[in-house]
Write a structure and sequence with these properties.
single chain; 314 residues; alpha/beta; Rossmann fold; eight-stranded mixed β-sheet; 13 helices
Length: 314
């Protein structure tokens, strides 16, 4: 009888564990399955520098200096949809999923250093026949933008940096998904189990007003995180990050620069805005006190007005 009870208890525990796993298990989703929803026209998938990049190229073809938009870690080109809608009536607008994120997915060489990303940006411009661009970037994309301006100054006319990365910093709050990916003992589990609530918590943490985060927004971040291979990228990306290594290059950037920063950014402290402004020779700074780490997404209408004024200035 004892053995029977023990076997019954063991079976129940195993069943509960299986049910618990099935409730949070999150298998990868193929690009083919994600494309119909997340890459309708004018999206295209095209080879760029060793990856098949998801990009959108919109607006008038006679714009000789397009606007290039670069998203941050674990985001995608969709984060710029508000800006793209406002810009594309008068400007050619190029947005792209960076290697390791969105539908573009992992780099076959697992190279996520800033040098690799700047090579990708230049290769992207070359593939589209673009000699120079006005480049805007948020967070990681902001770091890629200013590094490209420093390493290839002839390719960047104006810069827009939105809560950019670059300096060593201490976060007030790190998104839960980032914490899991940075923890070696949990990163393997992160690639197999991903409750939707983890993604929701992460997105809410980068907004100044978390109540603005909708179910549709969480769905987008969640599904694109599940793109085959994307979850393995985060651990590689964080391991290859070298904060502060290249900030001396900022002083060499001659492109006029607009710095936008959310005053409630809990990931990269707003105090870093002044550090960028001090080093960049031709920088203007605007702080949005009530916005968070992604002000271009949280309040696209307000932020893009300032960008349009900056881009139109001689």
């Amino acid at each position: 009888m004892r053995l029977a009870r023990w076997l019954t208890a063991a079976f129940m525990v195993a069943l509960l564990l299986m049910l618990a796993y099935s409730a949070v298990a999150a298998p990868d989703i193929t690009v083919a399955a994600l494309t119909p929803r997340w890459a309708p026209a004018p999206s295209v998938l095209r080879p760029v520098d060793g990856v098949t990049a998801h990009l959108r190229d919109e607006g008038p073809r006679n714009d000789s200096v397009p606007v290039l938009l670069l998203h941050g870690t674990s985001a995608s080109l969709h984060t710029w949809e508000g800006w793209s809608a406002a810009l594309r009536s008068t400007r050619r607008v190029i947005s792209v999923d960076l290697p390791g994120f969105g539908l573009t997915g992992p780099d076959p060489l697992n190279d996520y250093r800033i040098e690799r990303y700047t090579r990708f940006v230049v290769a992207l411009l070359d593939s589209l026949g673009v000699r120079r661009a006005d480049v805007a970037g948020n967070s990681l994309g902001g770091e890629i933008a200013w590094e490209t301006a420093a390493r290839a100054p002839d390719r960047v006319r104006k810069l827009v940096l939105v809560d950019p990365a670059g300096f060593k910093f201490t976060s007030e709050s790190v998104p839960l998904g980032f914490r899991l990916a940075r923890t070696p003992s949990l990163s393997w589990l992160f690639t197999r189990i991903l409750p939707r609530g983890v993604v929701e918590s992460s997105v809410r943490s980068v907004y100044g007003d978390p109540e603005k985060v909708t179910d549709a927004l969480v769905d987008r971040y969640y599904q694109l995180t599940l793109r085959t291979g994307n979850r393995t990228v985060l651990a590689h990306r964080f391991a290859q990050t070298a904060p502060g290594a290249d900030t001396a290059r900022l002083a060499s950037i001659t492109a006029p620069t607009l710095i936008l920063w959310g005053g409630r950014d809990q990931l990269i402290p707003p105090s870093d805005a002044a550090r960028f402004q001090r080093l960049l020779p031709r920088a203007t700074l605007i702080i949005y006190p009530e916005l968070g780490h992604v002000p271009h997404e949280e309040d696209a209408a307000r932020t893009v007005r300032d960008v349009l004024a900056f881009l139109r200035a001689p």
